[in-house]
Amino acid sequence: MKMEFGLVLAALVGAAGIQNAAAAEIKVLTAGAFKQVVLALVPEFEKQTGHKVTVDNDTVGALQKRIEGGEAFDVLVVSPGAINDLVKKGKVVDGSRVVLAKVGVGVMVKEGAPKPAIGTVDQFKQALLDAKSVAYIDPASGGSSGIYVDGLLTKLGIADQVKPKAKLKKGGYVADLIISGDAELGIHQISEIVPVKGVTLVGPLPAEIQNFTTYAAGLGSGARDAEAAKALIKALSGPGLSPVLKEKGMDTAS
What we know:
By secondary structure, the protein is an alpha/beta fold. 39% of the residues lie in helices and 23% in strands. It has a six-stranded mixed sheet with strand order 2-1-3-10-4-11. The chain has a five-stranded mixed sheet with strand order 7-6-8-5-9. The two termini are 26 Å apart.
């Protein structure tokens, strides 16, 4: 399986048709949910191109603030709406946006812990009410899953019961709070649950209340080597990406 996965990555990068004699440094800023896909592709991309890629991640809201504050970058992976906003502000090249993938929200518990039933909306509500503590991304940090969960609790009519026992993460992995024992139940994007050792994905939210976040890439208006950055975006959006996305808990955007 690992060898097959490596061959898929090699094919994706090769399909980008990259030919660049001079090595470049490419700085990627990515929302946390897509980080694992970028990191999976980077070694093969570097091997085939000679370019050096550095990856930094944060919430969508935090990345927007950092960029608006003047932080330099070459490739950005956030929500399409954030890309559009930064195009208007001259931070991302107009017309460079490429939709990459989408990811749903899931529920996790500590590895070895009993899995609550969450297959229906009522079961999901009961699981939250029964849990001693519930962890999710702090909505104030700008993370899309945290903003959605915050509103969902109100929509389901259980905000008053759940919020007092909520453990909020300001960025990074909600799974950290589950592993440490600070929270019993965690809610986060599936791609940020699957790769973390020490937690178990219980399953996705019920279809009726599921929320998919779409991610897109954009070229920084101040990119140091635009062609190298474009080649990386092409590799991240190449045909056959589906197996890589599935491996990392994501789906194709279509």
